[in-house]
Design brief:
Layout: H1 2-10, H2 15-34, H3 43-51, H4 56-66, E1 71-74, H5 81-86, E2 90-93, H6 102-105, H7 115-125, H8 130-134, E3 137-141, H9 145-154, E4 160-163, H10 171-192, H11 198-221, H12 231-240, H13 246-265, E5 277-282, H14 291-297, E6 302-307, H15 312-315, H16 326-338, H17 349-361, E7 366-372, H18 376-391, E8 396-401, H19 408-421
Parallel strand pairs: 1-2, 1-3, 3-4, 5-6, 5-7, 7-8
Helix pairs in contact: 3-12, 10-16, 11-13, 11-16, 14-19, 17-18
The structure holds Double cubane cluster (BJ8).
Length: 422
Amino acid sequence: ETTHHEMWERLNLDLEAHDGLLEVLGKFYGDIYLSQDNRLKGMEYLDFVLSEVHGLRIKELQEAKEAGRKVVGTFCVFVPEEITLAADAIHVGLCAGAEAGSDLAEQLVPRNTCALIKSFIGFKMAKLCPYIESTDMIVGETTCDGKKKAYEAFNEIAPTYVMEVPQTKTESARALWRSEVVRYIKALEELTGVTITAEKLAEGIRITNAKRKALQRLTALRAASPAPISGRDSLLINQISFYDDPVRFTAKINELCDELQERIGQGKGVAPADTPRLLLSGCPMAVPNWKLPFVVESSGAVIVGEESCIGTRNSRDLVDESANTLEGMIDAITDRYMKIDCACFTPNNERLENVTALAKSLKADGVIHYSLLFCQPYSHESLKVDKALQNAGIPMLSIETDYSMEDVAQLKTRVEAFVETL
Ligand code: BJ8
């Protein structure tokens, strides 16, 4: 505890406000996570990592920095982790899922900005995030208008390198994205002094693919009935995939999947087999945004999948490992990332197919589409996803909310009513 405080002080955090945040987080975690029945033994690791997410993991980052490694912070699954790893750097997610500091953020971005953006800006301004303070490079991206304009403002308080993500999937869009991948390689080489060779990039691809394969395994096991793991726990695993050491995390998740397999073999689950099964779809849920999963799972349903960037959108596609030249690997990375079906793309019909296929493969009885308030891309697509699911005979409930707790009772009423119809 004391050593963590010294570290946080060195990182220039607001110690008092940060203590307050950790206290609320701890209580929240107790209510939402530790209160669950029939949890997997493997979740102990995740509980531990979460309890030390601002402690031991930050200490590891500091030690790595002392040993000469660099830390890269990102806000989007478009930033290729393979390349970060190939430069011997550490890749962490900086998206935030709490309201703390959001009022301060309104000095830099308009009030009608989504909660996710306000949260990462607020965390920086209120000196609450040891990850932001540990980074040597912060990488933004031109995805939604909210984010791309926010990075302009954020750049004034935290220098931000911005990758240009195209908005379509045409050949010229691919060429633009490939050039951005190459530019990112150069930027990292400059930052770290490491030359990214074919050998190093192959290793980065292998580590990242292995992590995604472990998450794919988890997704596939959740098709079992009764549901073998709660949606809350699965969301936590996906959230922690953005912070933890990738090799250690992969080993732990594979162990957890072994346990899941055993549990499925015994016909055991976290809820009775006739519990309505729901797929969540839409905006990413960053730590500690557990509001909707908690509401859903305390309304008589169980969540069996997350079609979001903190979910299957991040784990579904692998980089082809057959290339053995640097140029070939860059092509493979480019192609893999161009498959991401973010709502920022136009058109984005593959997402409609992917949501429908995922709902079917996970045997979901219904889908809850989740958009953050003021998120144009996902609010728009909620209408399209609804139609696509209707055509497939899968009911959908559309929810728009933010990080405040004020609408919890109202959300619960709507979710319960939806669950009753399934
Ligand atoms: S690839 S989903 S991580 S951009 S919720 S900030 S879209 S207004 S997060 Fe995303 Fe990359 Fe796409 Fe995924 Fe804007 Fe919407 Fe806010 Fe959002």
